[in-house]
Fold these 2 entries.
Entry 1:
Amino acid sequence: MKPAASAGSAPHRLPLLQGLLPFSSAQLPHDIVAGITLAALGIPEVMGYTKISGTPTVTGLYTILLPLVAFAIFGASRQLVVAADSATAAILAGTLTAVAALGSKEYVGLTSTVALTVAVMLVFARVFRLGFLADFLSRSALIGFLTGVGIQVAAGELAGLIGLAKQGHGPLMQIVSVVQRVAEANYPTTILSIAVLAVIIGCKRFVPRAPGALIAVIGSIVASGVFDFARHGIAITGEVPGGLPSLFLPPLHTNEINQVLATAASCFIVIIAQSAATARAYANRYNEKGDDNADIIGLAAANAAAAFTGTFVVNGSPTKTEMVDDAGGRTQVAHLTTAVIVLLVLLFLTKPLSLLPAAVLSAIVFMIGVKLIDVKGMTELYRMQKDEFIVALLTVCVVVFVDVMHGILAAIVMSLIAHARNSYHLRTRVLTRSPAGQWVAHRVEPNVLAAPGMVVYRFEADLFYANAGRFSEEVLRLVNEASAPLRWVILDASEINNIDYTACKTLIQLGGELDRRGVGFATVALPTGVRHELERYKALRAQDIHREIFATVDAAIATLSNRSATAPPSAPGASAG
């Protein structure tokens, strides 16, 4: 009889509240402090994201209210913070403006529709186990994508920093537009922006734990009320609705469905990739078992909550997760604390928010954009992996010169191309025995023999339709260019993890070609590797020809050394193919 499970372990089996349970009273004070810290740092940030997404300021606060609660209930990660994110906000602004004017009622409704569509996609991803799609967005492509988004975001706020209206399509035209109109700058707004940037950068450098953005927000609100900024030509946010968000069903018109689906698909890929990577990193840091499937459901619930409360797509945020972790938060209690504080702000403090100068949000968003530009990551890629640097750079260019949606598509396509290129590139060796009796790998060249008349050819990659032809050509070259006729070609398949149908057919054809040349063909494959695939496809069996699969190179050499290619085998150490 199995012992009864302890009460402490029972919560781990619950499908809900995995990010909250088991509850630790000792950790509670740290989580509360972390939640307060997240609110202090996150509230100005999510308000800034509304400038990127083109939605009302209050919708930023909505992203860290019910979506936080929904993920805390349905998600599994104890650390991941789910809220507004610059990348997905930029995707919305870069795609939905094709069907609705930025900031219009129709546009805001569409952002909620996209959030609901993303939630449905995430549910399908969970049901059909599509979480692996995140792995097709490589780290290098993600660096390039986020860097491009950072350039786009920062360039888009330059006009706001000096009190001008945004003009021009794309980052380059926006920068050119600001340079051409710099003489028209509003000087009070410019001075305020410089002061805000100085506070944010100064706190970051000299007092890293101080909430520079929050200090700038509070200080500017007080100054705006005292000195009446609006009367001096400094634009302010204006009325911010108070109270709880209204619940409603996002609208959808058939003529907009294609744009909504395309936008949601782009957001979906970013959400899956960024959230999974962040959740896994923190689970590993604290030696906790992650659950990607539960996190996908949590993300779906969070986006559904965003959709029904009139706000836009939410995502697992690496920056906010790091904020909480740095402040000592270890469970979703921290995030619930933040949600409570946001609720209090919505109920009692929206009137002061109406005095917030627009330039302050521009400065905050500008700094967000600058932070996304990953110079360190790009430099590291250039130094360590130049081909992946090219992938990242091309992704940056697509985001900057075309748009964000095509940028994410380019990131995915180039990630797949890079993967296919690496798999296609042959990693092959021929083996010889050293004086000490060890097998030594050499570059593939003719006449490098493992034993008289025998070549051992090792293939160190999966064998599939794209590289099977090159594999066959290289083996035949070894045979054709040998100074003396070969008796056996031994394929060392111990490093191969997968052989597809095309590759197996190629093996059969290769065996036939070697037979016509009077050369035997054997293979080395492990029971845990591709041996069962070879046997299933009967790739090493041809009419009237016996082929063998050996467990080791030594066994193959010992058995075949004194045997011709056409002699029927009967060695006990080998198994018939």
Note: Strands lie at 82-83, 315-316, 428-433, 439-442, 454-459, 488-492, 520-524, 548-550, 575-576.
Entry 2:
Amino acid sequence: MNNNISIKKQILLWMILVSSVPLSILALQGLHCARQAVVMLQYEHLTSVLGINKNIIEQWMSERRQDIRLLSRSSVVQNAVQKNSIQSSREDVLTLLRQIQDERPFFESIIVYDTSWEKIARTEKVSHDDKDLLDPKFRTQLREADDFVMNNPHLHEDNKIGLHMGFPFTNELGAKVGYIVYNLSLTETVQSIIAKPNIHSQDPYNNYLLSSDGVYICLWKGHEKYLGKRMSIREEMLTGFNETVVEYKNYLGEDVLGLSTQIPDTGWILVSEIRRNEAFEWIRVLGFRAILTGVITLLIIAYFSIRISGKISKPMRDLAETAREVASGNTALRVDPTASREAYDLANAFNHMLDKLNVMHTKLIQTASLAAVGELSASVVHEMRNPLATIKMNVRALQKRVDDDPDYSELGLLAFTQAERLERMLNDLLNYGKPISLQPTRLNLEDLFSEVTAAIQPRVDGKEIEINVNIDKRAESITADYEQMQGALVNLLDNAVDACDGNGLITISSRLDSERSRSVSITITDNGRGLPAKTEKEIFRPFYTTREHGTGLGLAIVTKIIDLHGGSIEARNRQGGGAEFTIKLPNSPDFQVFEQPNKIDQTNRTTGT
């Protein structure tokens, strides 16, 4: 029972682990993609907000420049800056300046100077010291400029933002005749364009202006205390060129996503940002839902895992019980198949294994019996060969005495022939019964085939039999025992020569079966009389022969040699006549010897006959 609980726990843990990993990966990938989508969406929104505000600010600044240009071209101003101007002309300029200031209240002050910096007229809502309006640096810039000059916006004591600008203007001949210096209030103008109406606005986007050196120029209402302070955010925000959303902390210490852009001809940086938690609000919702979905999914998986583990453990218990019964000696017991497909296949495989074990057990008993017969045969053959040799010698002597008598001479020849056949059968039986010890080396098939054909050539001489050799370039060598393989091939060629009846074509060839298996096939074909019907498998059985004087052990010895090399041999009749023997051998340099146990000591190596 404890083992079953352990198996169930392992299945449960593995299924939870296997399912949680892809679920986690999918959830993380989904959140990552959602986050990237949010970043891209915010980039588009921030770009749109920046574009709208930028166009409005550019339009407002362009209108203010146009106001000053129109003022400079006024005949009243042109006459007032001449050297011969009179006081009445200056009064006219002052009246014009006040009119402009009344129509455009964001002009806090307007001052007209001639080229010697003599004040022609001045009107102002907010008092400014001449030192602030015309500091030496600003005056030098204005004198050398051909167009508008402005300094950085500055904060007044009343927390309003002012901007000093100057414009050098010329007469009809293009000669510089004076300067217009004015101060613009950005608080009621630019700030109202970009800022929120109050700090509680539901608008998620925050917009503000920075000077070129990173000082706050315009902020949304309620945050005026930060005006004039230097911004401490990432450097790329001060360039005004962002290819993607930048994450940073703003002046309130909040994590935000932002973009920036430059306002042409001003050097200002317009920033638009959104709080990070507001931008990724739906990401948090998706994350919570993903976690909830994952927990529910894991609970469902755990439930079904427990159910499945119970179904899996029962067939395993049945297998274990059957294995114990078989081990105790009840070899006829088998596992009952279940309804589950997997358990059904497992039970069939287990039963098939038991059947194969029974077959192997039977073969093992037969092998042991054959080994015993082999030992007995070796002993009998050893005892019979000496008397048989004596009989042959005496029969040969008697043949010489009866050479003149045809009847007795024929009887003597018959006795000697049968004695030789008996001796040959005893030798084959001894060779078949004793073990073979292989000494594998890497063999070149061209050399091996050459040796084999040379060995069989005496049997071919005087006959109209041709032997051809074909070698696949991809299968030029094998790993095998040279003498044993040579004996096996000679035996097969000898059978082919006998099948040709003195006239025919024999071919010995090699080929690579496939690049994947890397096995080599050696094929011996002839166009002789072929094999008797339905004997393709029987001819490899010991003592089975179709030859008049055969012992039935030649092909059995060949099969034994091939089996020990880890290969196989097949025979079949060819279409058009003749037989074909195919040997398949593994072509691996790491050769494994398949030895057969036997108690007989080997004194000679067999070549097969």
Note: The mean pLDDT is 77.
